[in-house]
Amino acid sequence: MSAGYPWPGGHRAGLCVTFDFDGESPLLWRRRDDPPGDAAELEQRRYGPRRGVHHILDTLDRTGVRATFYVPGWIAHTYRRAVAEVHAAGHELALHGWCHEPPADLAPDELRATLTRASDLLAEISGVRPAGYRSPSFRMSPEGFEVLAELGLSYDSSLMGDDRPYRIGDLVEIPVDWATDDAVYYRYTGGGESHPPYGAPSLYDAWHAELAGAREAGTLVDLTMHPWQSGRPARALRLRQLLDDAKDFGDLWIGTAGELAAHHRDTATDAPGTLDLPTRTLGWPL
């Protein structure tokens, strides 16, 4: 093991392959008071549950990698067959709100209600109640962690405070990073955005470098992808090549976020942390 973190099986570093299976739900939430009249972005996002997820599942099957899919309840309701196929293929289903609502936009009671509704539906589809959660757009509130703990979840994967698993209260945090989110490279919906999407080779090179850095430092790479973006064929092909490379290294632990959270809970000795925000009593803004 490297950098002091006890990776499973004595591996040098870790890799989680995850997907935010959100389809059109983020757009519907953002435009909830002003429904979009243009079908273009809605259809672009619907590519994920219609076709992209199937290219992703084929990629994962070819590489033998088990992934974690963070699924809004609305997506599970609207595209139930696709979500059931993800579960049938052996992948973990975890929470991602009901319709991609960031916790900071909801009162605790509202968050509790949306997550309970989503958890009930995912448990109905899979027979297993979700153990983890990822906040939409990586936006998390301190009160949100209290709700997650009340609902009996064991981990969150929304924050960037470390490059190894760590603790926040009763939950294990499986950290993320914008540099390993495909939206930074691929998200493009037209309408005057600053740059067109990067090609698949650019993301492959960048993420190959992330794996090299993690192997050197003994840290985690938590890939965050979206089937409506990474599910396009050329991108799925490059992802398959990256995962093949990761397996060939031989020193990377590769597994689901839930598996890593359970390992951390069983083996790590870090003390529970807290999540506090600055307040005006501290002179905010600083």
Question: Would you kindly provide a written description of the structure presented here, covering whatever features stand out?
Answer:
- This protein is an alpha/beta fold and 286 residues long.
- The protein has one domain: TIM Barrel, CATH 3.20.20.
- Strands 1, 2, 3, 8 and 9 form a five-stranded parallel sheet that branches. A four-stranded mixed sheet has the order 4-5-7-6, sandwiched between helices.
- α8 runs parallel beside α10.
- The longest helix is centred in the first third of the chain and has 25 residues.
- The protein starts with 12 loop residues before the first strand and ends in a 19-residue tail after the last helix.
Query: Any guess at the CATH architecture?
Result: Alpha-Beta Barrel
Q: Helix segment count?
A: 11
- Per CATH, the superfamily is Glycoside hydrolase/deacetylase
- Proportion of helical residues: 40-55%
Spatial gap, N to C terminus: 40 Å
How many structural domains can be distinguished in the coordinates? Answer: 1
Element string (H = helix, E = strand) = EHHEHHEHEHEEEHHEHHEH
CATH domain class name: Alpha Beta
- Could you tell me the strand content as a percent range? 5-15%
Gross morphology: globular
